[in-house]
Design a protein that fits this description.
The structure holds two protein chains of two kinds.
Chain A: E1 5-7, E2 10-13, E3 19-24, E4 31-38, E5 42-50, E6 53-56, E7 65-71, E8 74-79, E9 88-95, E10 107-108, E11 112-116
Parallel strand pairs in A: 2-11
Antiparallel strand pairs in A: 1-3, 3-8, 4-5, 4-9, 5-6, 7-8, 9-10, 9-11
Chain B: E1 4-5, E2 11-14, E3 19-25, E4 32-38, E5 45-50, E6 54-58, E7 61-66, E8 71-76, E9 85-92, E10 103-104, E11 108-113
The chains are: A mainly beta, B mainly beta.
Amino acid sequence: DAGVIQSPRHEVTEMGQEVTLRCKPISGHNSLFWYRQTMMRGLELLIYFNNNVPIDDSGMPEDRFSAKMPNASFSTLKIQPSEPRDSAVYFCASSRPLGLAVTDTQYFGPGTRLTVL
Amino acid sequence: QKEVEQNSGPLSVPEGAIASLNCTYSDRGSQSFFWYRQYSGKSPELIMFIYSNGDKEDGRFTAQLNKASQYVSLLIRDSQPSDSATYLCAVRGGSGGGADGLTFGKGTHLIIQP
């Protein structure tokens, strides 16, 4: 089975530009998570969806960040306008119910390394 | 605010020895606990999870959970150079319904010396 797919794998952009990151979860998984990883702050949850519905976006740092999940197989994370402090690796993860919620496990995509100049 | 604390290391362990990685968490409502391994430049890879007090073994790995002490550990037996990586402890809390995002520690860098 294909794992979580993210694109692009690397993105270099200039401050002020719009950035769109894309994610395709594992087929059959109904929960999708966006995380950001930096040296200073580690791995942080930004937002997650359950059955395409945003459940918790409290980790989204600012209004410049937005995320959508128009269907079960696709999600986007958009930053507009981008700033140098947004430079990080952005991971998408997905999970599916295994019967007991406490056993739900998340599988990570390869990540998108974003550099904002 | 949920917090997960790990010693950043590096933790250096000779090949063949037992590596012990520790993690504490602040939210007593946390229900399940995960260990991920992350190689440099790669994505986190799930090693195992635990949600009941006590020990859980999977091959060379043993996870230990003590909810009263809010403490989780991972033991790696017969450590191999390929085990050298950053180990991330993650915690999930909240209600049992639906999915919850994970709160991660910053990770412990483990080095297995040949």
